[in-house]
Amino acid sequence: MLFAVLGQTFISAGTHLAARQATQEMPPMLLVTLRLACSAVLFALILLVTPGLKVPPRAEWRRVAFFGLLAGPLNQGLFMLGLAHSKATHAGFLYALTPVGVYLLALALRRETPKRARLVGIGVAFSGVLVLLLGRGLSEALGPLLGDLLILGAVVAWVVFTTESRPFSQAYGGLRTAGWSLIAGGVFWLPLAPFTVSVEALSAVTPLGWKCLGYLVVLTSVVSYGLWNFALARVDASRVAIFTNLQPVATALAAWVVLGEPLTLPLLAGGVLVLVGVRLAQR
User: Fold this and answer.
1) Which of 241, 251, 249 has the alpha carbon at shortest distance from 278?
2) Average pLDDT over residues 22-31
3) To pair with 162 at 20 to 30 A between CA atoms, which of 37, 62, 79, 225?
């Protein structure tokens, strides 16, 4: 399990960079369409050649549709739209709120009881998010702020998916949970395809853009989702989610080296607050 979540964490750190570069190569809506379509096809082929169930039982179709909506249009759609107006480092720090979100949802569902240290940690983490969102000053255009808020919406979708898909992963396995969810997500997005895909936009994509798309499809959507649900089938959601604490550091350093994103004071201060808050919430 440890190797699964560590692998997923570092793949996710690279995801923020690949997605940021890809959104500079093509419109975000086109990127989401290509990513969901390719991921759905690839998962369908994998499920076709692996032993076991090929399609979910009819009684589970409603749950699979719910997971597909969360993992596809909401998580991936909001993430890509937000990242087009934000930075890879901000995405990494915002996703570090996943453990806090999982805990809050568990409280709302009465699966856990409130604890003072965790509530203090939640407050500290959210103060870090505010520093990240507003650290560049209100004098800037609202575009970057809107991007961060969209990414935060993607994080909420990921939190709900993480929490609610765990029993399903225990029953059917991580591979099928991830595969059926992203296939359903592709079906949800399919009606938008004619409005997002154009020959002109496709012809403008550089080889680097196609490589970034390949990373997002193969490593992020297939390998990373599979590893995440593999871990969820074996360990509590809150314990799996804690490993997202490693993402911000890896993402910030990689973005600094690869993309040249500066390590600004608001970024560092907000990031530290997020990590300290999450750590307090998980103690």
Assistant:
1) 241
2) 92
3) 37
Res 138: pLDDT: 44
Query: What CA–CA distance (Å, rounded) separates 102 from 48?
Result: 33
DSSP 141: -
pLDDT in tens, 135-147: 655 444 344 678 8
Write the CB contacts of 69 (distance below 8 Å, at least 6 apart in sequence).
184, 185, 188
Can you state the angle between helices 98-108 and 265-282, rounded to 10 degrees? 40
Please give the DSSP secondary-structure letter assigned to residue 242: G
- Residues of 4-15 as b/e, b for ≥16 C-beta within 10 angstroms? bbebbbbbbbbb
pLDDT at 102 over 60: yes
Tell me if 35 sits within 8 A of 213, measured CB to CB: yes
Tokens (6 digits) for 34? 């290509």
Count of C-beta atoms within a 10 Å radius of residue 114: 10
Residue 85 has pLDDT above 70, yes or no: yes
pTM of the model: 0.82
H or E element, residue 178: helix 174-189
Q: Which two tokens stand for residue 19?
A: 């997605």
How far, CA to CA in Å, does 203 sit from each of 32, 53, 142, 198, 210?
17, 38, 31, 9, 11
pLDDT of residue 140: 46
Is residue 217 within 8 A of residue 35, CB to CB? The reply is yes
Burial zone of 197 (CB within 10 Å; 0-12 exposed, 13-18 middle, 19+ buried): middle
